[in-house]
Design goal:
Elements (H helix, E strand, L loop, with lengths): L2 E5 L6 E5 L7 H10 L4 H13 L3 H11 L2 H6 L5 H20 L3 H21 L4 H14 L2 H14 L4 H14 L2 H14 L5 H13 L3 H14 L4 H12 L4 H17 L4 H13 L3 H14 L3 H17 L3 H13 L9 H13 L2 H14 L4 H13 L3 H14 L4 H11 L4 H17 L6 H13 L3 H12 L3 H5 L11 H6 L5 H8 L11 H13 L3 H14 L4 H13 L3 H14 L4 H13 L3 H14 L5 H15 L7 H21 L4 H13 L3 H15 L8 H13 L3 H15 L5 H13 L3 H14 L4 H19 L6 H23 L10 H88 L2 H47 L3 H28 L2 H7 L17 H13 L1 H10 L6 H15 L3 H9 L1
Antiparallel strand pairs: 1-2
Length: 1093
């Protein structure tokens, strides 16, 4: 048992004070201490013992008395104890200010602490403990930099001052410099190895922040070894166990949290984690108790923020959004930046989104996104908010980003598909398919809604088979399989019987008798309805009827099924049954705007104008004028009232048109993309003659209606064609009518064919008009108006043909045939018994008959004249044709003759060349066999006469070349006249060949007698070295050669280039060719001269 002894003044006795038995009233101890003037260190010991025992008031009373001015004056020489007392009081008030939650009291405590530390500094400003106390105070106030300076002053004087090291380590930890903080904790532990376990707690926290979890766990476990009841270490280890995210770790962590709570029930961290645990177990009462306790015992901002967040989550999960929002906001106020604790921003965003405050929700989710830019849940939430705000592009951007960040998140693709379903059906379909595939790969069931959406999108894209597959997959097994014919025993009945007996439910009782369960789950009703709608589109009306009746059998209040059955009856032109079905729907809900609008439309078709108007007004009143269909129906009623075929009052007509325009405009103001309202407004403007404006409107409506199976608007195509017709643009009108017929009616609508025929009529295309009317008559044979129009078209065609300036017999005959047909048609109409029922006047028809007969008589006269003219023209054409054929035959004969002549020339040339070559070879052989001595003698004789004979030969040769060249051209001019008969040409060629062979034989005989050198000269192969010697002949043979040279020297000189292997002068070659041809064609007189030589 610890005791202290207070010495009695002026004696050796001492007063013994047991520290564990200190009196409750500290005044007794104070009296003894004052009376005996006890040393100040005893004051400190006793006050510290009071503090340990939790008697804080006695602790404060003793220290304040020990720091009173009397004590200071009496113990003026005692410096350390006085400073220690003041520092103890400063530390006490620093602690009070730190834990105080009210700001005013907090400030008061910090002021008192500052005063005590300043008083201690005045005693000794260099005392390290005072600076450590000041640093702790500044750290508690949040003045981290000044606290760091205070601790630094101490460490500059004493590097191993443990309190200063610990204080500076805390400063570095708060700065986020965990490595520096860890080093300081290590220095403190090295300086004082036996320090309390809290030092190692700091080491563990630094390790944890640095990601060194194993070493952090070791540090916390060491703290527990030193102090098994250290709450902070237990909480830290529990948090690490909880973060393991497995069942065993969570169990261990919660056990440590409970133990920490049992040791110290006011640990805010443990309270928050326990509240978090009980939140997930659904024990909200414990959550609220624990968080309220945590809020009462802590003033730490982040800790309080967690407490408020737990409390807000509890109220949020219970649906108390008002309190949840309040506590989320309180949690946000306890932190400085979203990065410190972002969860309350997300919760507050959810609450604001739930309450419809999209701007506030957007602000909170954006702050979450700043901290976690890739958080998919936040991105999806922002996408939904932007959808609500009408910013579809941003919504698409965020949802697309979410799907890219986590491509395995099926919900992201579902949200993206929901967003795109109204703007881009293709992308929406891809998103839904991706979500379906992800769910199937993950082994999760695909929701019926997803498969239904996929089917609807396929249906919109007119991919009906794929839509059917999706709907069947969404429905699975059920009674609908038997009703749609997908089971061996089918219960599909004939469509007309089904629609007439819509109240008969015997078929479903038979199904139950056959052991088939007639169950229709509520989440599959829409899918069955869509399946029936699909069968309607596939023209399986019987299946659609039985499915609608199945829905009514299980859910008799399903109004849409009645309305679809009414629509089928209306399509079959059974207006009474359709009205009956709509009335059945109105029995369920008498103010259903869709049923009322449909009833008004049926009454309008039934020509019950008054009832239709009242019904349509009721439909509009049922929705306070907000139902666009009812308003449109009223607009249509006013339009039809204005253009009725009865007596038309211009004033009343203008009133109805203006009212219709007002109603159409009202719908467009509410729904700017309503195509039907825009179409109606365009019709009214067209009726008023504003064709350009109405054409622009119809064009925009046509573009908007294209590409959707749910928007079938043939009316806008017809209206646009009417505008083109009114403007005189008949070609575009015809094209538009034809496109409308093909696209919407499969070319089977007689009314549009009538529009088309009228367009052809106005365009004066009578034959096209007649053909179109005949097609319409084929579709509607009982429509006498079409027959009358066909007769008028034939009459107009005949009149126009007869009025033409020039007519062919074919046209006149066609006119006669058309007039005969017109007379027959008008006669049939005149003989009809019910003529007046169709709106025809018998006198008018008889007038047409008489006029057509008159035209027929005139046409016959024109036909006879045209036929005579045609016969004359035919005879002229035949004569011209014969003349042309004769001319063509003559031209072909001339071309053939020229061709044969040219071919004979080529053959003659080829023969001549062969003969020249053979002659050259014979001369060459003779020259080789001649005596060389004779050649030398002849060369000497030729030397004397060479010069003169050479000159004469050259001069005469040139003159003869010119003459022969001329005769050659003249001969070619005369050749066509000489070769009219092929047999004469052949005889002449034969004679020429004979003469040429004779001439060659004579030349050969002469050459045998002459010198071989002369033979070479004659062949154009004389030796260049002996040219001068060979010029003058020395014998009779030489004179004979000279005479030959003067008379016919050109032939051998011209043959030289022909016979030479190397031809250098093309001009000489041409002359030689011409001379040879001349020689070949010389008359017999020339041959005689050669023989004489």
């Amino acid at each position: 048992m610890a005791c202290v002894y207070i010495p009695v003044q002026n004696s050796e006795e001492e007063v013994r004070v047991a520290l564990d038995q200190l009196p409750r009233d500290a005044s007794d101890i104070l009296d003894i201490l004052k009376a005996e003037q006890a040393p100040l260190h005893l004051w400190l010991i006793i006050s510290r013992e009071y503090f340990k025992q939790g008697k804080v008031e006695q602790f404060r009373q003793i220290l304040e008395e020990g720091s009173s001015p009397e004590i200071d004056e009496y113990y003026a020489d005692v410096r350390y104890e006085r400073i220690a007392i003041l520092n103890a009081l400063g530390a006490y008030y620093s602690y009070l200010g730190k834990i105080e939650t009210r700001q005013r009291e907090k400030e008061e405590h910090f002021i008192l602490a500052t005063q005590y530390y300043n008083k201690a500094s005045r005693i000794d400003m260099h005392e390290p403990s005072t600076w450590v106390g000041k640093g702790q105070l500044l750290l508690a106030k949040g003045e981290v930099e000044q606290a760091f300076a205070a601790f630094k002053i101490v460490l500059e004087g004493d590097r191993d001052n443990v309190p200063a090291l610990l204080g500076q380590a805390c400063v570095e930890f708060n700065r986020g410099r965990y490595s520096d903080s860890l080093e300081l904790y290590k220095r403190a532990l090295q300086a004082y190895p036996n320090c309390p376990g809290a030092v190692r707690l700091g080491i563990g926290l630094c390790r944890y922040k640095l990601g060194q979890f194993q070493k952090a766990r070791q540090a916390f476990q060491r703290v527990l070894e030193l102090d098994s009841e250290n709450v902070e270490a237990l909480v830290a280890l529990a948090i690490m166990d909880l973060q393991a995210n497995n069942a065993a770790g969570i169990q261990k962590g919660m056990d440590k949290m409970r133990r920490a709570f049992e040791i110290y029930p006011y640990c805010a961290m443990a309270l928050n984690y326990l509240a978090n645990h009980f939140f997930f177990t659904g024990q909200h009462f414990l959550v609220e108790q624990l968080t309220e306790t945590a809020l009462a015992v802590t003033n730490h901002g982040p800790t309080k923020s967690h407490s408020f967040y737990n409390l807000a989550r509890s109220y949020h999960s219970k649906g108390d959004f008002e309190k949840a929002g309040y506590y989320y906001m309180a949690s946000i106020k306890e932190i400085n930046k979203p990065v410190e604790f972002v969860f309350p921003y997300y919760g507050l965003g959810q609450v604001k989104l739930k309450s419809g405050d999209f701007r506030s929700a957007l602000s909170n989710f954006e702050k979450v996104l700043e901290v976690y830019p890739d958080n998919c849940e936040t991105l999806k939430a922002l996408g939904h908010i932007y959808v609500q705000l009408g910013q579809v592009e941003k919504a698409h951007e965020f949802l697309r980003k979410a799907s890219k960040i986590d491509p395995r998140d099926a919900q992201s693709f579902l949200d993206l598909g929901e967003l795109l379903i109204s703007s881009d059906t293709g992308a929406a379909l891809d998103a839904f398919k991706m979500a379906r595939n992800l769910l199937e790969k993950g082994g999760q069931p695909v929701p019926v809604e997803v498969l239904n959406n996929i089917g609807v999108l396929h249906f919109e894209r007119e991919e009906l088979e794929l839509a059917l597959e999706s709907f069947n997959k969404a429905l699975g097994d059920g009674v609908w399989l038997a009703l749609t014919g997908n089971k061996p025993k089918s219960y599909v009945i004939e469509a007309s019987a089904s629609i007439l007996d819509y109240k008969d439910m015997q078929v479903f009782h038979r199904l139950e008798e056959d052991g088939i369960s007639v169950e229709l789950p509520w989440n599959k009703v829409t899918v069955v309805f869509n399946l029936a709608r699909l069968h309607e589109q596939l023209h399986n009306t019987g299946i659609a009827n039985i499915l609608y009746r199945l829905i009514l059998f299980k859910y008799p209040d399903y109004i849409d099924a009645y309305l679809r059955l009414a629509a089928i009856a209306k399509a079959r032109n059974n207006l009474q049954l359709s009205i009956e079905l709509v009335n059945e729907a109105l029995k369920v809900n008498g103010k259903c705007p869709n049923a009322l609008s449909m009833l008004g439309d049926l009454e309008l078709k039934n020509d019950d104008w008054v009832k239709a108007k009242e019904t349509l007004r009721s439909a509009s009143d049922a929705t306070d004028g907000k139902d666009s269909y009812a308003t449109l129906s009223l607009g249509n009623w006013n339009y039809f009232a204005a253009v009725r075929n009865e007596k038309r009052n211009p004033k009343l007509e203008a009133t109805h048109l203006e009212k219709a325009k007002e109603l159409y405009t009202k719908v467009l103001v509410q729904h700017t993309d309503n195509l039907y309202a825009a179409n109606g407004a365009g019709v009214v403007l067209a009726e008023k003659g504003q064709f350009d404006v109405s054409k622009d409107i119809f064009t925009q409506v046509q573009e908007g209606a294209s590409g959707s199976v749910f928007v079938q608007m043939p009316d806008v195509w017809i209206n646009l064609a009417h505008i083109f017709f009114a403007q005189g643009n008949f070609a575009l009108a015809v094209k538009m009518y034809q496109n409308c017929l093909r696209k919407f009616y499969n070319n089977t609508d007689s009314q549009i064919l009538l529009y088309l025929a009228r367009t052809h009529y106005e365009a004066e295309q009578w034959q096209e008009c007649k053909k179109t009317l005949l097609r319409a008559i084929h579709l509607a044979p009982s429509n006498y108006t079409l027959r009358f129009d066909a007769g008028v078209a034939m009459q107009k065609f005949s009149t126009a043909t007869l009025q033409k300036g020039k007519r062919t017999a074919v046209e006149v005959r066609s006119t006669v045939a058309e007039l005969e047909n017109a007379v027959r048609i008008f006669s049939q109409l005149s003989a009809a018994s019910n003529l007046h029922l169709h709106g025809f006047d018998e006198k008018k028809i008889n007038t047409h008959v008489e006029y057509c007969k008159h035209l027929l008589e005139a046409a016959k006269v024109h036909r006879e004249a045209a036929e005579r003219e045609e016969q004359q023209n035919r005879q002229k054409q035949e004569a011209a044709r014969q003349l042309a054929l004769a001319e063509e035959a003559r031209r072909k004969a001339e071309e053939q003759r020229k061709h044969l002549l040219e071919r004979r020339k080529q053959e003659d040339e080829q023969k001549r060349l062969q003969q020249a070559e053979e002659h050259f070879k014979r001369v060459q052989e003779q020259w080789k066999s001649s005596n060389p001595s004779k050649r030398r003698e002849r060369s000497e004789m030729d030397d004397d006469e060479g010069g003169h004979s050479e000159k004469r030969r050259r001069k005469g040769g040139k003159r003869r070349k010119k003459d022969k060249s001329k005769s050659n051209y003249e001969r070619y001019d005369d050749e066509p006249d000489m070769m009219d008969d092929r047999e004469e040409m052949e005889d002449e060629d034969a004679n020429r060949n004979y003469r040429e062979s004779t001439t060659q034989m004579n030349d050969q005989d002469d050459g045998n007698e002459e010198n071989p050198q002369d033979l070479l000269a004659a062949a154009g192969l004389e030796d260049s070295d002996l040219e001068d010697e060979a010029a003058a002949p020395s014998s009779a043979a030489g004179r004979r050669r000279q005479a030959w040279s003067e008379s016919d020297d050109d032939e051998p000189s011209q043959r030289r280039p022909e016979s030479s292997p190397v031809r250098e002068n093309p001009a000489e070659q041409q002359e030689s060719d011409g001379e040879i041809r001349e020689d070949n064609r010389k008359p017999d007189g020339g041959d005689a001269l050669d023989e004489e030589d």
